[in-house]
Amino acid sequence: MDLGAAMVDGFVPQSVTVSSRYEGDKVIEDQAWEDASDDVLASAVPWRTFRWYMGQKHYSGTYWSATMQDHVIYESRLELSRLLLADFDPTVRHIVAQPFLLRAEVGGRRARKHIPDYLLLTGSGPVVVDVKPTQHLAKPEVDFTFRWTRYAVEQRGWRYEVWSEPPVVYLENVRFLAGYRRQWLFDPGLLDALKTSGLAGLTIAEAARALPDHAEPMVRAAVLHLLWSGVIKVDLDRPLGTVPISKVAAR
C-alpha cells in the first residue's frame, strides 16, 4: 500500500502489537509486531478455536493437512477451500490457522484488533491471509480492517492476501486430488515405476493402464497421488478427466 494514500485515508496503524498462544498454555501478549519473528509465530496454536452451536452460519471443522502432517482448523467452507489450496501449493511449507491477534491504533479511532485467518510460511516469505466472500468486501468495517492489516503486514516485508471465491473447476480438481494426499498409503515402488513410464501426453485413464502388471485401480490412485504431489502436471483449470498429462518431474 502506498504510504501517502494510506495516510490520507487514515488507515496507517500505530503502535501495532501481536499476541499469540503456544502449547502448554503459554501466551505472549502485546509484543511489538516488528519483534515477532515468523519462526516463533510458526509454532503458535490458534488464537481462537471454533465453536459449534445451534443455528450457526458457518461450517467449521478440522482438515488433515499433508503439509503439516496434522489437523488444521477452519471456520467456514470458504476457509477450508483456501486451506486445501495452501496444502496443495508446493511453495507452502507451514500453515497456522488463526495465528495471532493484532492490535493497533488506527486513524485516531479507538484501538483496533484483528485475527487473520492463516499464516503461510513459503519459500519466498510469510503470507498473512484473510478469507472473505466477495459480497462482503465492500462493507466499510471489513474494508477498514483489511486496509490497516495490509499496511501493518506489508510494512514488515511480508505479503498480505485477501482471498475470496476461487475458480470452480480448479478448486474441485484440487478437492478431488486431496483424497489422494496421504503418501504412506502408496507403494513407493509403484510410484517410482510410474515416474519412468512415459506418462506425458496420456490422460489419467490411459496412465492408469500404463503398468499392466499392476491392478488398474491401484495405478490410477497412484497417478492421482502424483498429481497431488506435483510430480505429474495437468491443466487443473479444465475437467480432470479430459486433459493430458503435460509434465512428469524427476523427483
UniProtKB/TrEMBL annotation:
Single GO term (MF): endonuclease activity
Keywords assigned by UniProt, alphabetized: Endonuclease, Hydrolase, Nuclease
Protein's UniProt keywords contain Hydrolase: yes
Keyword Nuclease among UniProt keywords: yes
Species this chain originates from: Actinocrinis puniceicyclus
Domain of life: Bacteria
Name of the protein in its database record: TnsA-like heteromeric transposase endonuclease subunit
InterPro entries per record: TnsA-like
Taxonomic lineage: Bacteria, Bacillati, Actinomycetota, Actinomycetes, Catenulisporales
